[in-house]
Automatic annotation (TrEMBL):
Residues 360-373, 391-400 have a biased composition (Low complexity). GO terms for cellular component: cytoplasm. Residues 340-405 are annotated as: Disordered. It comes from Rotaria magnacalcarata. GO terms for biological process: protein polyubiquitination. Residues 534-868 form the HECT domain. This is HECT-type E3 ubiquitin transferase. It comes from the Eukaryota. Keywords: Cytoplasm, Transferase, Ubl conjugation pathway. Transmembrane segments: none annotated. SMART domains: HECTc.
């Protein structure tokens, strides 16, 4: 229809109408609730002006002939229909319209459009007949050059749509059944069109993506009646869509992020209901050993939740590109160092039989590949507006294991979007919003892992392991522990067969023997010789032997070793770390001696070994330390928890308003680009943030730069010599694990140091009893009365006595499963403990006073005594 014909048709419609007094078109004179003042249109010029405006803004959308042949919703016609239904006291008119719109892709996608978009949209008629009754006889696809898969434009008016849906839901009782039936028909139509080789045309439809945002706005997705049918069918569409249109959905949702919480709530309700159904089926059929991941519909729910997770990242707080590039360069340098170290060890093993040259050539190729990848990343980051995938794993060319980890936890959508979760400090919603605690409690992570590794790489089916953002910290730790145990088993297996075929016996365990009086010296020698020079040793199970003492390490001796060595090496006399009185946490001493690289490497290795062997350490670092262990760089935001006084001072500098305060920053603060940092001895170490910093005042213009440089100095540059070997030692142990892909920095802190929140009621509730004791035994009742009366410090001593650590594991003390065994009748002997089994051996003391006395003696003299 030409523009002139379009204006003429609107002119006739505004003056004469269509002749139907039941007309629902407010832009038609026959409508009883005509939008305009009829007296105004007595002047033909006014009619002509409005006809031109309608033609320009809406094209043919509001012509009677178009509205009679196409049903779609606008806020105005919805209001008019509701008014009409109220007048008639009959909702059939609204119900018929709702079904007509929500059961048809073309109708729903053409609803709630932004002004100006229907114009210039041509209709491409695909004359091939549908093979199913649920689809329309012909498929219509709308084209608009302004809407492409590459841009973020969409024809949907979000505000108008939300108001309309809110209005519609005011009459939920009248339309709920109809709209649920209609959605079922709609999703089948879309599925049919996708299956009939119409995917390209469908995704190129200018209005197609509107449907997903409209449906997500409906509360029915969380309705238990609709979840197993309507919601399941809706979520099943997403995996069938191309990566390109999924990317566009993510980008648009990141811009419309205020809706994200309701979207996530829909999917979490869906997952919860499917978990409940699985629980019911499992209880009914006790022989059913199917995993939660096999529940029909769970795959689709997690797939959609992952899409929402990516939108949450894009809508969150990402580090600036300069910081990201610095982190990547640091990763690359550290990777080359680790490759070189391993290569040197391999070269030593090769000998002079001609293989040495081949090894050297491989090393050069690996270094060149790492360098090329670094250059390519820098060029790509500089030219592309999209994020680029972190290469902290892809550049690991020395082993194929890292490539497997890379592909395991990444997927095409994440790679195409260029997302690396740990490059985002925060999402728009908290990351915990994507963890379904109820479902996580039902996930049997051991069986999930076994089921996953049995799959063929070219035919992977759904597994929770592929969705680390969904897993609780407890399940992530369990998964990491399984991975570590598999590594230990492989090392034992390798040692066994090496011993058989070579005749040279290799120890299947990583054993060290230390003297209590020379703990650090002996540990340093053992770890340096076996661990650094032979990195494969670190993948074996760790055993400790105290020289001159009997006892086989079943876990208790290792726990005691870690406890004792951390107490010593972090003490002030070594001068390697300093304690902050305000935060009660440890930080690197910027003035530490120059020759402590070996010691810092040792500490990093100990941290990695503790994680690898599931030992909780009694240490407290600020959160930035764990961010740095994940390859991150410290910035101003990190000072809030590591150096709170400095953070407050710098924040006041940034927020200082010279006009309001009536003075300048120079006069108020008197700061220059020369600063001092206090070291472990209390001395001030002076640094110039810029050349000639002493003579460069901090002003309103350069205060941002000052804060950036000062933060960088405190958290990075002043401790670079100390942190670098520390980080190196940590990576020697953890490099080949999936630590970075599974965990966030805050979770690494819990993994290393456990939780300081101790609920001894949880411990009592979960405790088990053996050798004649029960929860009602008099001695057991006395024991809990005594323990609950202890001070916090005494309780922590008891915890260390029985478990080797005064911290709670992730999930609280209930997860310790303390076993209290009767250790004979009344006696003068003290209680003892098997720390490796969390077993507490308690004699059947005759009185509560005697129990208290003996228990206090035991826990106050625990080192090297009573720990079996």
């Amino acid at each position: 229809m030409t523009a002139a014909k379009l204006v003429q048709s609107y002119f006739q419609q505004l003056t004469r109408g269509c002749g139907n007094n039941q007309c629902l078109n407010m832009y038609c004179s026959s409508n009883l609730s005509f939008k305009y003042d009829r007296k105004l249109f007595e002047d033909p010029n006014n009619v002509a002006a409005e006809a031109i405006k309608l033609a320009h803004d809406y094209g043919s959308a509001y012509l009677d002939e178009y509205m009679n042949s196409n049903s779609f919703l606008t806020e105005e016609n919805l209001q008019q229909i509701i008014i009409k239904c109220k007048e008639l006291n009959n909702w059939a008119l609204l119900q018929n319209l709702i079904y007509s719109v929500f059961s048809n892709r073309q109708n729903l996608s053409s609803s709630f459009l932004r002004k100006g978009f229907p114009i210039n949209i041509s209709t491409n008629n695909d004359t091939s007949s549908s093979k199913t009754a649920s689809a329309t006889a012909k498929s219509y696809f709308l084209r608009d050059s302004r809407i492409t898969l590459e841009n973020n434009e969409i024809t949907l008016d979000f505000d108008l749509m939300k108001r309309s849906i809110k209005l519609l839901m005011s009459y939920e009782d009248e339309i709920s059944v109809v709209i649920n039936d209609a959605l079922g028909a709609l999703f089948k139509q879309i599925a049919n069109e996708l299956a009939l080789s119409k995917k390209v045309e469908l995704e190129d439809d200018a209005n197609f993506l509107n449907i997903f945002f409209i449906v997500f706005q409906l509360p029915y997705l969380s309705d238990p009646i609709c979840i197993f049918d309507t919601a399941y069918t809706f979520y099943s569409i997403f995996p069938k869509l191309s990566i390109e249109i999924q990317m566009k959905f993510v980008r648009i949702l990141a811009k419309q992020k205020t809706d994200l919480n309701s979207y996530v709530s829909h999917v979490q309700q869906y997952i919860t209901m499917h978990t409940l159904r699985w629980c019911d089926n499992t209880q009914i059929n006790t022989t059913n050993e199917s995993l939660l991941s096999s529940e029909r519909g769970m795959n689709e729910g997690l797939y959609v939740l992952r899409i929402l997770f990516y939108a949450n990242l894009l809508g969150g707080e990402r580090q600036i590109l300069e910081i990201i590039e610095t982190e990547r360069e640091n990763d690359q340098r550290m990777e080359v160092e680790l490759i070189n170290r391993r290569q040197r060890h391999n070269d030593d093993d090769v000998g002079d039989d001609g293989n040495h040259n081949e090894q050297e050539q491989n090393q050069q190729q690996q270094q060149q590949q790492s360098a090329e990848q670094g250059e390519n990343r820098s060029e790509a980051a500089a030219t592309s507006p999209l994020r680029h995938r972190s290469t902290s794993f892809t550049m690991r060319t020395s082993t194929s294991e890292q490539d497997e980890i890379e592909s395991l936890y990444e997927n095409p959508l994440q790679i195409k979007l260029g997302l690396e979760p740990n490059e985002y400090r925060h999402g728009y919603l908290p990351f915990d919003s994507f963890i379904n605690e109820f479902a996580n409690e039902k996930i049997e992570i051991n069986k999930e892992y076994l089921d996953f590794v049995r799959q063929r790489p070219d035919n992977l089916h759904f597994s929770f392991i592929l969705y680390p953002f969904f897993l609780s910290t407890i399940n992530k730790i369990a998964l990491l522990n399984i991975e570590n145990k598999v590594q230990m088993y492989r090392q034992r297996h390798t040692s066994f067969f090496h011993s058989i075929f070579s005749g040279v016996r290799l120890d299947p365990f990583f054993k060290i023997c230390v003297r209590r009086g020379h703990l650090i010296e002996d540990a340093l020698i053992a770890l340096e010789y076996q661990g650094i020079e032979q990195p494969a040793e670190l993948k074996k199970q760790f055993f400790v032997e105290f020289e001159g003492e009997q006892g086989h390490d079943e876990g208790g001796l290792s726990k005691e070793f870690f406890q004792l060595i951390t107490e010593q090496i972090f003490s002030p006399e070594y001068g390697m770390f300093m304690a902050d009185e305000e935060t009660r946490s440890l930080w690197f001493n910027p003035s530490a001696a120059e020759d402590l690289d070996r010691e810092y490497t040792l500490i990093g290795m100990l941290l990695g070994l503790a994680i690898y062997n599931s030992v909780i350490l009694d240490i407290k670092f600020p959160p930035i330390l764990y961010r740095k262990l994940m390859g991150k760089v410290g910035t101003f935001e990190d000072l809030e928890t590591s150096h709170p006084t400095i953070y407050k001072s710098l924040k006041s500098l940034l927020s200082f308003d010279e006009q309001q305060e009536g003075t300048t920053i120079e006069n108020a603060f008197g700061s220059t680009f020369q600063v001092g940092i206090t070291d472990a001895t209390g001395s001030r170490v002076i640094y110039d943030l810029k050349e000639n910093g002493e003579n460069m005042s901090v002003t309103s213009d350069n205060r941002q730069e000052f804060v950036r440089l000062y933060s960088d100095l405190i958290l990075n540059k002043s401790v670079e010599k100390q942190f670098h070997p520390f980080f190196h030692g940590f990576l020697l142990v953890t490099r080949d694990s999936s630590l970075r892909k599974l965990f966030r920095p805050d979770e690494i802190e819990l993994l290393v140091a456990g939780s300081q929140v101790l609920d001894f009621n949880q411990l009592a509730t979960a405790a088990e009893y053996d050798a004649g004791y029960s929860k009602d035994s008099p001695t057991i009742r006395n024991f809990w009365d005594v323990l609950m009366s202890f001070t916090d410090e005494q309780k922590r001593k008891f915890l260390r006595f029985t478990t080797g650590s005064d911290r709670a594991p992730i999930g609280g003390l209930a997860r310790l499963k303390l076993i209290i065994s009767r250790n004979g009748p009344d006696t003068d002997r003290l209680p003892t403990a098997h720390t490796c089994f969390n077993a507490f051996l308690l004699p059947d003391y005759s009185s509560i006073d005697k129990l208290r006395e003996k228990l206090l003696i035991a826990i106050n003299n625990a080192e090297g005594f009573g720990l079996l």
